[in-house]
Amino acid sequence: MTHATSDTPASTSPLALHGLSVEGVNQCVHCGLCLAYCPTFSELGTEMDSPRGRIFLIKSLAEGRIGLSDPTVEHLSLCLDCRACETVCPAGVPYGRLIEAAKAEIERQRPGGAARRAFRWLNFGMLLGSPRVLRAAAAGLHFYQASGLQRLVRRSGLTRLLPGTLPAWEALLPPLPADRAPLAPLTPAVGARRARVAMLTGCVQSVVFGAHNRATARVLARNGCDVLAPPQGCCGALNAHGGDHARAVEMAKRTIETFEAAGAETVVVNTSGCGAHMKAYGALLASEPGWAERAARFARTVQDISEFLAQAPLRGPLAPVPMTVTYHDPCHVVHGQKIRRQPRELLAQIPALRVVDLPESDWCCGSAGIYNLTQPEMADRLLRRKVRNVESTKAEAVVTANPGCILQIQAGLRAAGRDVPVLHLVEILDKAYTSAGGSTVPSDASPRIDGGGKVAARAR
User: Fold this and answer.
1) The CATH fold of domain 323-436
2) Which pTM value belongs to this model?
3) Could you read off the pLDDT of 102-116 as tens digits, one per residue?
């Protein structure tokens, strides 16, 4: 394979792309241990679609030995940024930071035509940048679904006429709830107070998966936490993942200011991509005057919901949830945050719940931020592999801890004709608490599990 070359001589200055350091490429010892753990290499078998190959491309770009040719962009863009390679890398290569820098450079040099730029501005700027605009868009989409228009459009085949990746977007559209009220500013602790925490309610999470946020607050309260939910916007994870570095930096600063003002001891996150991104704020803002130390200090306060709860046994009582489930590890929990045992420890404390192992549980499902929208073909290949593994467990439900994984795996199971729901970890925990009774925390119809432990339809 050939790549366009550059006449620019190799530089002896620190390696950087888009002003972001990629010096970490020099830590790679080219041992190849990452190859067997890379989903795209496993599917395609080409060196340049492996972490080692992409590191070579990033290093060559930073040194000016190659340019951003079409093949180079394709190889880099096919990366999921799942960071499975980081988990097995003996040299500690910070691959996630490297690929985000490369994608930011792609956006700088090759932003595409007017239509693509407008599309990215609409999503990364308008929707993710403004909670008010996002709520308005959610209201419009709720009407699209509740009015029956979505069923009509899908049955008529009109979605196939949509340009670009819009058909993939429409296919993944989850049921939008009519109730998009924000989480209460304070959910008080039940019983002896253990901690005062703030909770990331998120951007898309708040309008699509508000039930998960309410369940999270209830579970934290039952475990002795005063839960603060200050008004907030997007943390910038999807922007960073998509190469929109400037907006990611501004969103990180706003997020830090918001939670500093809240005065909580810990910031609890129930979305894996957001948690991994916020824990990396120190690196993201390292070159921002006046922000490096502040961001690093904030990052140390961020904890995934399972990481926080698993520090002590769950407070009871917990009612039995008699069902068989399997657990899927979201990439940015298991690889991005190195959290593997904690979710399983929490599930093991629920009476009558049986957890069966999922083959390749830490293998990416193809969601990967916005990957299933920008690279639908590869995402679908990985999804079919995940669905086959889920089917092999014969579980009644899949439990995971990230909204993107929930949407992706649910869509794959539905396409395969399997009536197996995908639940957030907090839904199972919340069900065990609400069934046990005695809670003073307001409940709602969010858990999709009936009184006998069977999975029920989510209330619309």
Assistant:
1) Rossmann fold (3.40.50)
2) 0.88
3) 999 998 898 877 777
